[in-house]
Amino acid sequence: MSASSLRKKRSGLPYLLILPTAGFVALFTAWPVLLSFYQSFFLQRLNIARFRDPTFIGFGNYVDLFSDPYFLQVIENTLTYILGTVPISIMLGFLFSLLVNRKVRGVGFFRLAFFHPMVLPMVSAATIWLFFFTPDYGLFNTALRALGYTGAQNWTGNPDLAILSVIIVAIWKNAGYYMIFYLAGLQNLPTDVYEAAALDGANGWQTLWKITFPLLRRTTVFITIIAFIDAFRTVDHIFVLTSGGPSRSSTVLLFELWLERFEYQDIGASAAITVIFIVVLLAFTVTNFITSERKEA
Amino acid sequence: MKKRFGTLLIILLIASLAACTTAAPAEPAEVEEPAPAEETTMEEETMEEPVIEPVTFQVFYPVAVDAPIAAILNGYIEDFQAEYPYITVEPVFSGGYADVQTAIQTTIDGGGEPPALGVMLATALYDLINAGTIAPLDGYIAAMDDGDAYVADFLPAFLSNSTYDGQLWSIPFQRSAVVLYYNADMFAEAGIEPPTSWQSWAEAAQALTVEVDGATNWGLHFSSDWPYWLFQPLAIGAGQNILVDDCTVTYDDPAVIDALQFYIDLSEVYGAMPAGVQATWPTDPPDLASGATAMITHSTGSLTGLLDSVDFELGVMPYPGREEGTYASVPGGGNFYIMQGAPEDQREAAWLFVEFLTRPEYVADFSIQTGYIAHRYSAYDTDAMLAYVADVPQALDARDALEFAGAELATQNLGQVRGILHDYIQRAINGEMTAADAMAAAQAEAEAALVDFCP
To answer: Which domain holds residue A101?
Structure first.
């Protein structure tokens, strides 16, 4: 075979190979995104006869959303939720991975214990925690009282605690998942660096923060991205535990999106919230990607 | 070699794409039980004469309840198909009421053909009418020999959410009501009579609140994380339901405010209930059964489960009303709706199925097996039901509660109007606002939410 025909064959084949995947992405991701952008500029409500056909209103949906105090509370709740779940579950994942990265007897049990919440469907996990959160005799409250806690116990019914209850369930569910990634990262670290550090007289704490953690930077970046995205995407437990309440204190962005689309039948507003979602997540992912690549260079 | 490899790969790709497209099923939703019908749908043109071509239709059913309902429904379908051999019924089990409504709506939005029949909440009426999803049923009733008698046989409380604009839009199917369950043995031991007014209710709950091993066994559990349904009988018992019609809510009526204040007082004044919003719907029946509480407010749908799990005499009654000797309740549950977008022959077959399932013997059987309230008077005269209520008199108590029932909350823009009520009731219960302020704010917001919908 001649050199030129070889090159011709190579240039066509890759595109052919990715064609099915590209087709799926175009049909099920790109097209709905574009459709949402388009629909967000229209007023359309399915449960009012005269608004069933879309009417163009420009940025009206966005203006209405951001001037609605409820939506601003939803944004506040979402930020609280993100700040509550992402850093803590990542740190716990790191801590767990350090704990189970040893060759002691019974470490397999602990790995199982830390990881098993991830295997449960979120609705099952939330249902279990619903019983844990029962005031007075639920396991969670009993354990807290044994530790000397004397405060409020109505986790899912108290407006100040409801968001905390969903944060707790999310952390419990995901920490084990991030543990696995950190574990893999830890087990791939080069041992000669540690030998050098030991020779230089570094103690455990210094080894941890000046060597181990920096070496796991790429893992951390990856886990931060998926934790951030997952915190936006998973609201199953809110349906089970608090139904977004009480008084909407645990309604986050995706829950509000569900309310707008399926309870209020407001196509325009739900499309606008979808666009906000896409913008936020895209901005985050791209920024993370760029800054991490820059650090590499 | 490369040439052959490339060609082979292209052939494999095309083959796999072709396999994918032919394997794509036509079913719109998950089918949890294998449907007893054939897969090929024969939809021929309807003929003019009464000799009917074979017709297949789908019924979307919300299976998310605590009984083996799917198997029961499949049994009924078999009986129906035996009687009407030219009709095939395909049940599609879709998780819950909201899922059924969403699935049907999404199908219509996508330009597809909706199922001929669906079971959805009775309160979804206005949303469904406004979205053009459902068809009125008066034509079918008029074509019956005894249409008026048929409709009159339904318990009126269960038809209260079926009519709009002078037309009938739905037929009751799996209906329930809010009741007060109580531990009759605990009452007898304490020498207390079942309550007959708010005052005696509060006092009974107070007397039955005890400290056990450092924890409190409350006299009453009253879930409030999805509050409207359990709250309505309090308002009705105070003299005014929270709505008047599809465009008028009465959240700030003095009687409604009194009802909310009574709920708050039960914990603040009488110490008979935990303070704050109680998110205890799933845990209340087990709590009653285990003796952790003396009374719970819950659905009649939990009756069968409770009867199986209690080792004491279970009492069932409507809520006591404010005045001595008055009572209150509210209906709930799902109705049959026929979809406008389905072909005419499917809709007519679906109506025959509805008629079949609302025959007294089937209504009675369904009620006995599932715990839903039999929604037709004639069902209570069937042998099966007479035998059942001899064993389980609580079933009649559940039905009798409906005598005192007002209409369930159903308005235009129901999602938002109900959400506003929940929001403010919970603020009042959690002490963030007074009951009067909360309900006034709720009324103002609800009226604003109804403006676009109501002329």
So the answer is: 68-296
